[in-house]
Amino acid sequence: MDSLVEANNRFAMDFFKSMEEERSNRITFFSPFSFVEALAMVLFGARGNTALEMEKQFTECTKELYHAELERVDFVNVEETRKKINSWVESQTNGKIKELVAPHSIGKNTAMILVNAIYFKGKWKCQFNPKETHEADFWTSKEQSKKVQMMAQTGRFNYAKIRNPPMEVLELPYDKGILSMYIFLPDKNGTTQEIVKQLSYKKFQEWTSSTCMQGKMLMILLPKFKVEEEYALIPTLKKMGMKDVFTAHKADLSGISESPELVVSEFRHKACIEVNEEGTEAAAATDVVTVPTSAQTIPKFNVNRPILFIIKHNSPECILFAGKIFHHK
């Protein structure tokens, strides 16, 4: 299990880095663990060089670890198939994601389409008091800002000050401490791009290790935000070296079908998250933390500029989500 988790985490960081190189000035949010399950399912049917390319990213995968489904559909009846896929996605995300496959995005020449959608719902271990939420500036650049709803709370959190790249790291645990959000806040004169340049799974482990992070009393200022992002993943995966499975006459998926023309024509991923006082989605309020009047003397962790964030399961240490907030939505 440990080797599988590490392989998935390395892939997650490589993908995050590759995506950020393409989208440096845009919001990012995706679930690497979620779409790995779809790729792993294809890997089981891949043969020859197609399998070798995929195995560079996925090793020691076992089908029992992924709750994915493979189904034959009729790409001649395009609209009916599109609705069927969207209906499945909507049911899997409790109605949060309704239209993953847009009209005219698939056609009669489509051979295989991978669809993957996920939304995240969780409550903070220490929730923010809505009464402390206030309007504040979020700086998208040194010259431009926009107004956001800024949440606030004071408490003891795991925190690190990193010199290279210059940034602060904060752990915000979710209810019961099973999951945590790690926020990477560049210094005022730094950028998220500087963090991305050094980003790797090894660095992530170093930055969030117990030797780096220590408990500290902080006033946390974090904007409320909602992100819903959709990606066509094939271009990024090709850039990472996974080419044959997406290329006609090169893909060898003979473990799935005897048809030599079978190829993954489309791979779409959609993820959404809402961060508010209670967590990542509205729920019954418990353990609300109020900001004390003496908070002025406590150091601030002020998320008033772009950040990177990663949501991780703490046992096993698996990266579930990764993203960047570039501006408020």
From TrEMBL:
InterPro entries hit by this protein: Serpin_dom, Serpin_fam, Serpin_sf, Serpin_sf_1, Serpin_sf_2
Span of domain Serpin: 13-328
Xref: Pfam families: Serpin
GO MF term set: serine-type endopeptidase inhibitor activity
Any one GO cellular component localisation term in the record: extracellular space
Family to which the UniProt record says this protein belongs: Belongs to the serpin family. Ov-serpin subfamily.
Protein name as it appears in the record: Serpin domain-containing protein
